[in-house]
Amino acid sequence: MPFIIDPIYGRVDLTELEHIIINTPEMARLRRIQQLGLADLAFPGANHTRFEHSVGTLFIADKIARALCLSEQEIVKVRLAALLHDIGHSAFSHVVESVLKRNPSYQPVMNGKKFVNHEMFSRYIISNSFHIIKEIAQRTENDLSFFSEISKMATGDIDALPVPYLTQIISNDIDADRIDFLLRDSYHTGVSLGLVDVDQIVGSLSLFDGRLVLGGRDGYEEDMAITAAESMLIARAHHYSAIIHNPRTQGARVMLLHALENALSRYEASGNDVKSIVFSFFTSYNDNDLLNFIEANGDASAKKLILNIRNSSICNAVSRFTHKNLNPRTRMALSTIARNGVAKKMFEDELAKRFGKKYGASVLVDLDVASGIPKSTRVKMEDEEGFFYDESSLANGLVRAISRQISLCVFSKTEDNSTLSHASNDFLLGIENLSPSLLHFIRNDNYLPIEGLLLIFYSAHRLFCNEAEGKIAMPRLRNIAKIYYLVRELGKVEKLHNLLDYRFHNRYGFPYCDKLFEDIQLLVAMGMVDEDLRYFEKNGRWKQRYEYVLTSDGVEYAELIASEYQNELTIIENYLILNKHSIPRDMVSVASGRYRK
Predict the structure, then answer these.
(1) Exposed, middle or buried: residue 575 (CB in 10 Å: 0-12, 13-18, 19+)?
(2) Which one in 344, 346, 410, 417 has a CA-CA gap of 20 to 30 Å to 369?
């Protein structure tokens, strides 16, 4: 039996089919794509590759599948999906992916679909592009639909498969992919990200109603299942703060990004098909190929950036802003901008241009936010099922900690930074002045459901709030499930359908939307909404629930954006007036001066 020796897991045995696939050019390319991009410039040991990670994900996925006692055919599928899940990653991983979001005109089109992320490329390669796919299918007595199913499992397409758990093993809040990259990144960077107890996590997973859930047979096993999941979430939170948002990592990333955009712009101006070359970045290029492309097509400044990257001469961070030194309204604006690729590019370029001109220096700006907060992990406690973050106060706090992670760095490409060293306050003022105009730009081009959600909280606040004798009484909305229901019902109103574009499902027995939960957590993390914890008893168990009240910063931010949504706001307010008796709430009274501080 063929095998691979892995530095973390030791011997990883492969089947004949996996051995064939590993030796294809498509998989060989991953041997020359670093898992963490340019993070090795900050952490010298972090030169592990997407190939290593793919093999490690196969190992963990196999471990989970066997612990769940899946059939041999299901294990074959799970192992293949794990092995192939990153096959569509571009050179230098997420840098090129961000280029597609920042420059929609560069997005390749296949079969009438715009390719905007690596998952779409992975799905395409697995289903269509293996140069020996037909031979593999024939040798394994499988038709091509077999690989189509593998592609959906590998890329998290949970709605396209009859049983969700096959996809969840590869792509979920707690999955083989995350377990491996947290272990592997910690091992190679030398950064202790937190304990990831593989055996405990795997042993705590089970199947319920065709879905993967956490749980245990008795009270102690339940506690250990929650503890293992909490530890993994701690590692996830530290992964961003320690590695991804390391200023040197960000500096190298923004240098590569600007050099690549420069080269692509010149490549297109020369009459070349830029979409075709971008497609190659995800299907045939490796890291060195991409650097060579920039050096061949970029101007002198782009070539200088690449030379500096090769020589480990990274731009200096002259100012760095996080949630700790940005006020809530600015955090909220930047969080929204960061999630819109075109606006993010405009923001970074305009800020760099303004300060470069003002201070006579060459400036680069990078804005980044964390993503991938846990939002669908379910736990099975005795005869009840619930969400992981509802069972664990620590998990809920960690969800908020991940949601609030934002890093805005201003870099100087010049060696003499004396003119920029005392400009932090000036940078901050520029950030606050530029943000509103870019948000207006985004609204003209896209609907922002998170702002529609904030307007619902704002409308409820205005409807129920009253102020007298130096105190303000505000509504605290009970039961997040009722908020889901309210958003869903408002989204059915024709004139609100696009603004409240949340996709609900009933897999848990009630209307639920991953994106809506994520947006609620973002409003909490950005200081727009306060989340209060309440305990209650049910069937002899003490459980917790979360209640929500708009902050004074949330009121101010909502008032700022209200003029952009006059018609929508009127519809929301009229709906709440008609249904106010069905909105579960408590009234909380606070001194007016204290509330507005």
Answers:
(1) middle
(2) 417
Q: Which of 288, 175, 195 is nearest to 238 (CA)?
A: 195
Tokens representing residue 527 in the block = 């200081």
Domain assignment of residue 19, yes or no:
yes
Q: Which residues of 409-421 are buried (b: 16+ CB within 10 A; e: fewer)?
A: bbbbbbeebeebe
**For residue 272, is it within any domain?**
no
Decide the pairing of beta strands 378-381 and 211-215. parallel
**What is the CA angle 204-208-209, rounded to 5?**
160
Dihedral of alpha carbons 346, 349, 352, 354, sign: negative
**CA atoms of 194 and 299, how far apart (whole Å):** 43
pLDDT digits (tens, 9 = 90+) for 480-522: 888 999 999 999 999 999 999 999 998 888 889 999 999 999 9
Torsion sign over Cα 108, 111, 115, 118? negative
CATH of the domain at 539: 1.10.10.10
- Assess if residue 411 is contained within a domain: yes
Q: Using one digit for the tens of pLDDT, what is the confidence trace for 447-457?
A: 899 999 999 99
**DSSP output for 358-375:** HHTS-EEEEEEE------
Enclosing domain of residue 402? 315-442
Return d(Cα 523, Cα 557) in angstroms, integer: 11
Residues for the chain: how many in total? 597
Separation CA 82–CA 307 (nearest Å): 36
Which residue, 427, 442, 457, sits at the end of a domain? 442
Do residues 431 and 461 touch, judged by C-beta distance below 8 A? no
Q: What pTM was computed for the model? A: 0.93
- CB-based contacts of 419, cutoff 8 Å, min separation 6: 359, 360, 361
Give yes or no: residues 227 and 353 share one domain. no
Per the domain annotation, does 277 fall within a domain? Answer: no
Query: Burial, 106: exposed, middle or buried (Cβ in 10 Å; 0-12, 13-18, 19+)?
Result: buried
Based on the fold, state whether residues 456 and 432 are members of the same structural domain.
no
What residue type is 417 in one-letter code?
Answer: N
Same domain? For 325 and 423 the reply is yes
Q: Residue 29: what residue type?
A: R
Least reliable range by pLDDT among 133-147, 306-320, 397-411, 552-566 = 133-147
**How many domains, in total, are found in the chain?**
3
